[in-house]
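Reopening closed ticket. The problem is back. First fold of the pair:
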Amino acid sequence: MSHAAPRSTPPPTRAARHGKPHDVVVIGSGFGGLFATKALADAPVRVTVIDGTATHLFQPLLYQVATGVLSVGEISPATRDVLRRQRNARVLLGVVTEIDLARREVVSRSPLGERRTPYDSLVVAAGAGQSYFGNDRFADFAPGLKSIDDALEIRGRVFGSFELAELSTDDAERDRLTTFVVVGAGPTGVEMAGQLAELAHRSLREDFRHLDPSRARIVLVDPVPAVLPGYPEKLQAAAARTLEDLGVELLMGHKVVDLDDTGVVVEDGDGRRTRIEAQTKVWAAGVAASPLGRSLGEQSGAEVDRAGRVVVEPNGSLPGHPEVFVVGDMAARQGVPGVAPAAMQTGRYAAEEIVRQVRGEPSAGPFVYRDKGSLATVSRFQAVAKIGPVQQSGFVAWLLWLGVHLVYLVGFKNRITTLLHWAVSFVGRGRSERTATWQQVVGRGALRSRGQDRPTRPTRSVLDD
């Protein structure tokens, strides 16, 4: 990592040269981009947010969309609605395809064509996607959990699998349809596996006439020796016990070596391979930063790590380009994890550095990450939490998890509706968000492998609702 002190005075900006307001462009409206934008609300700048969806996605709760607990709108409000009172900010829909460092322009693409947006300062917060470790074909059969599209597709596959199992008269096929494999035992994988178990064993228990959902098989696979790597052993053990009590099979120390439409092949530490017949697979292992990271590295000469993250200066700026800040999952910083609080903090810090530059003040120095703890929910009323020296599991940790996530949700209305949905799902048994289209039920890979693009029957069914 470079430890050279960033230049305190960046080169003359467009604003300085032409007497125009200082233009800040923010790429992405996730935690890093949104918090950077809001931190510039009172600054003497104009902010342009460019994002491919123009929504702020609360990614940590995507698994609850995928399992029918929450709706899309509750975790993904429109960015322009969030920023409606911030008069110095505007939102543009567009997928950023290039950052021209020499011309200080961001090139984006929308259905209306290409757009070039000039900047004086730039915040790159494009986030990260799923990494399949070189096996990109797995994506057709095992969606990740990084976007709304991913969550909706997984939701369709999960609920569709139960619907198809109700129709099946073959025991082996029914078992395959109600086997769910989650790859990756980090927080997302653990939370997904826990909710799948709750869904099958509790929420859907009385919904079917020929199918017993409680017989569903949920398998959690990861090459690591224990769930929640990075958490203290005490909390790992507590999470594992809770998952096993829910009926989740833990295949720790196993890696996925092949994956197709109908199942998964796993390999243990001794090289023995086992095939698991499963209709629904969820990939929650590995992340890869936006391709913009490698592009920045090629233009600036900055180091880029294996995940595509840019090794930044101590204050978060791009080496050789003090007007460009890389935040959140796109930045490689020693001791800074790829979690939402880190994205928020780096976004805010980038905004503070930009304000200092506009005022002609020197940099405040290296960014210092403040670890506010780690939280992961395992199931209804069960979570694990590490805050400083305090390690807690069970109901108290679950209440803490609820409170923290409610605080970080954007918008009062979203907090209220989320709380109501949690009450329905966790206190009761309801899952109100169970809509699934035909395409979501059969999956992208299955459609292609079977040569289908739409239902073979023209009549409407429950799968079309």
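Second fold of the pair, where the issue appears:
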Amino acid sequence: MPTFVPEPHLLDSPRGRPWPVAATGPRAHDADPPARADVVVVGAGPAGLAVVSALWHQGVRDVVVVDPGARPAERFFRRIDALGQRVLRSPYEHHPGVEGFRDCELLDFARLHWGRLTAVERREIRMAQSGHRSVVPVDVFEAYCHHLAVSHHVTGRMYRATARSVDPGPDGVVVHTDRGRVATRFAVLCPGEERRPAPTSWWGGGPPPAGVGFWDEGVVHDGGPTVVVGAGLTAAHLVTGALEAGSRVRWVLRADQQRYQCADVNATFFRPEGRARFDGGDRARRLDLLRAQRRASIMFEFRPRLEAAEADGRLTLHRGREVSSVTTGRVALADGTAVTGDRVVLALGTVFAPGAGLLPDEVVAAADGWPDLDPRTVSYARAPRVLAVGAAAGMALGPSARNIDGHRLATARVATAVAEGLRRGHPLVPADVPVAAGA
């Protein structure tokens, strides 16, 4: 079957366009958070934004959001800009808007700002309206996130602070931050994902050698040769950015090939039939689905540019090669090949924290890397006043948990459980679930 390859200009949406004041919003409070709140949300990325917006619709307004950033989703967009990324891989229907309410969705927002869009972007909206795959400009997505933050009063509840630990108790939770503690009835953890560290064997652990950096640190190109290690969307952006800056690129793919796929997760897992397929399996089956459905991927739109660069010698690919060591300007492969350049950039993917580091280990109760969560409420089984949205909810929700739209699906359960718990004066604790001591 032939593969449809969209034209590369779909990647070229403008970045940094002005948007209405209502879509930019105020900054977070640079002050100590309040001592008490009904709900504390840890993290103000797309997941945290979705949670606070959904709680607003449930009538829950006494919410405190703690995050080191000055604006919602600040780190998310800082990482995107470090890559020079201008469009998202996820389609218009994947966004942090509120599930189940007649709210402004991402496609609605883009259409409201039709006059600010390019002809290509308008065509993509028409594709989305027709049910076809389309790409979303980062500019539009960022303005939409700010619109959600303003219209659901998120930023006014946000405090610049870093969560250090979360201590669940029988009647509530205490969230300790670097700017004081907050006593709360419920805590929702939305910490996002961290970059995957390099194997210790590559340089012996610790900080990387000089001239070796990670994908989210930003790369300044001076035209010299660049080595990129990684096989997914992030690596594709790094390679493309280096080529556009006039650099020659050596691309090390430890996989057999770069993968031109448009989504990390099969679309059925965002729909009831897919979730039923996941819920209906035993633990071994669910683990298999989680491993199989988390794939490295890059968009087809990259393909013509990268193939052209490979054909004219500006791009050299080293496929299916394991890395044995990394030093300044040099990546040694297991077969004895040395790949050299002025700089080495690592794009090894991301990893999530199941709650370890914030919650006591006995509360996390991780097995196979996944925390013990109640799938009905996405709360920790041993601390039902603490709930999770994001990748940590994978074993409860399925492969979609790590995706932006998966955050929205988890949020619908979390917001309902928290609102009901507040109304009843206690959390939803299933009778057959033991609660850890001190929880």
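Update: turned out to be a display glitch only; the data is intact. The longest helix spans residues 404-424. The first strand starts at residue 36 and ends at 42. Please close again.
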